[in-house]
DNA sequence: ATATGCATGTCGCAC
DNA sequence: GTGCGACGTGCATAT
């Protein structure tokens, strides 16, 4: 790993130079010090002086962290432009977004520690058990929904949006499935009803609506009855393991060929 | 400001001791080094080795930041418990949540920099131009909606939720207003319709539904017509400035008394 | 604990 | 660029 540059209590002029250079060279910067922050854009905020951790990433993301809380108190997403200036009393960092009119303005009255890093991170990231994975699992094993169920189309476009899974049951009824990776609330049912209404206008065949999710919210179960929708319990982790197995199968198949 | 403890390339045993102590004493810890991460809980993820910034806050929040991106690649919200262990080759940090079964497991193969901070942050934070502010502005100036509009109730409870603003127009029609601080989509209209349906069952008076938002989504504008709902453009910043003015008025009033 | 809706949500993807 | 839905969303609030 490349050695970081560490500056303890740099004066503001020096800090300005270092940060400017670091941003230009697309390094990662960590500033620890006492600052106040003003944000203005879609909304507006003010934050009085306090000791914080400020992170500037090489892609132009800005994070201002207080000593507590998971969320940054102020921030800018990636692709920001920075203007840094200083005098004897303070260091000012202004970050503006290229696309939207959003501005974060930081004034440091004290800098305790300034670190410049050149991080190398090629690590692969994989996330399992998403809603996408649940749909894939249904594709691989339509019987997860019920025996004899066949898929006609995925992500079928209908006017107000996309039907997650569109298929036909063994009796020939059309089936519209809304997939949720966590507890399905009324919004899931509303979404499904929307699709059922639209599709029912396009066909005279009988239609079934199914919510496939790990669980159903209590209030949603009442709606279920009134709208005559069905619920199919579907565990995202089970879905993830099905995909995992399938991957292995493919590999063995490939090896066998 | 209290001086931070800075350790360059500490050995794993030392790092373990320091982090353990820091967590126990509710300090803020920053670890910069090469690590891999496994997450498991609602979903599951793996992240290969790479150089990252790991932040442990005194409230038990955990953030793992790659050199790019606004969001942490892995994380835990506040109130986590940490288990730290080490051997000659690696430092392991496991964080589990108290309430939910969620676990993040970090393995460091190299530690470049370990910093322990005792940040003091009493700065006041204020956010303006929220949806709440828009409602307040309507309260202060009902004419923002239209001339002659009078408010009956705020956040009126009806069965499926709360009506943002409930009032009466100069002709005596009941008015139900749904406020949105950004572009109102179909979900806003669905919400409003829900309230209109419920209220229409409770009264025989004529009812008007109004979406008050800075803008209306295109698809939503079609729905607007079909449901015979009105749209009132309302800028959140204008609302914020109305509140600001009102504050000043109160101050002058106070001074005058 | 559960449910519901907001957020400077952010992000990705389709149009 | 805009629109729309997912997210390990987090978070506050009301029941």
Protein topology:
Two copies of one chain form a homodimer.
Chain A: E1 5-8, H1 12-24, E2 28-40, E3 44-56, E4 62-65, E5 74-76, E6 80-86, E7 91-97, E8 103-117, E9 125-128, H2 131-140, E10 150-158, E11 161-168, E12 174-179, H3 186-202, E13 207-213, H4 218-227, E14 230-233, H5 236-256
Helix pairs in contact in A: 2-5
Chain A binds a DNA duplex (15 and 15 nucleotides) through β5 and α3.
Any overview of this molecule?
The structure is a homodimer of 257-residue chains. Chain A has 257 residues and is of the alpha+beta class. The first copy, chain A, folds into 2 domains: 5-117, Protein Yojf, Chain: A (Distorted Sandwich), CATH 2.70.180.20; 131-256, Trna Endonuclease, Chain: A, domain 1 (3-Layer(aba) Sandwich), CATH 3.40.1350.10. The first copy, chain A, is 28% helix and 40% strand. Chain A has 5 helices and 14 strands. Chain A has helices spanning 12-24, 131-140, 186-202, 218-227, 236-256, and strands at 5-8, 28-40, 44-56, 62-65, 74-76, 80-86, 91-97, 103-117, 125-128, 150-158, 161-168, 174-179, 207-213, 230-233. In chain A, strands 1, 2, 3, 4, 5, 6, 7 and 8 form an 8-stranded antiparallel sheet that branches. In chain A, strands 10-11-12-13-14 form a 5-stranded mixed sheet, sandwiched between helices. Mean pLDDT of chain A is 89; it is low at 251-257. Strand 9 (125-128) of chain A pairs antiparallel with strand 3 (44-56) of chain B, so a sheet runs across the interface. Chain A binds a DNA duplex (15 and 15 nucleotides) through residues 39-45, 70-71, 74-77, 99-100, 102, 104, 127, 129-132, 161-162, 181-183, 185-187, 191, 217-219.
């Amino acid at each position: 790993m490349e050695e970081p540059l560490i500056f303890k209590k740099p004066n503001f002029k020096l800090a300005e130079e270092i940060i400017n250079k670091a941003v230009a060279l697309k390094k990662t910067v960590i500033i620890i010090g006492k600052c106040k922050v003003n944000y203005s854009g879609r909304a507006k905020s003010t934050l009085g002086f306090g000791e914080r951790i400020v992170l500037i990433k090489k892609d132009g993301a800005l994070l201002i962290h207080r000593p507590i809380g998971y969320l940054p108190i102020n921030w800018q997403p990636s692709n920001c432009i920075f203007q840094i200036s200083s005098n004897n009393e303070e260091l000012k960092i202004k970050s503006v977004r290229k696309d939207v009119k959003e501005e974060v303005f930081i004034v440091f009255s004290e800098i305790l520690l300034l670190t410049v890093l050149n991080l190398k991170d090629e690590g692969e990231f994989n996330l399992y058990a998403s809603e996408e994975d649940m749909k894939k699992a249904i594709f691989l094993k339509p019987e997860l929904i019920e025996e004899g169920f066949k898929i006609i189309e995925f992500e079928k476009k209908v006017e107000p949006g996309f039907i997650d899974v569109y298929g036909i049951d063994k009796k020939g009824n059309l089936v519209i499935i809304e997939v949720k990776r966590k507890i399905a609330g009324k919004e899931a049912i509303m979404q499904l009803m929307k699709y059922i209404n639209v599709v029912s206008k396009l066909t005279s065949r009988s239609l079934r609506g199914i919510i496939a999710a790990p669980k159903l919210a209590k209030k949603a179960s009442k709606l279920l009855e009134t709208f005559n929708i069905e619920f199919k319990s579907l565990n995202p982790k089970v879905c993830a393991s099905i995909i995992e197995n399938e991957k292995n199968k493919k590999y063995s198949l490939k090896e066998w060929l």
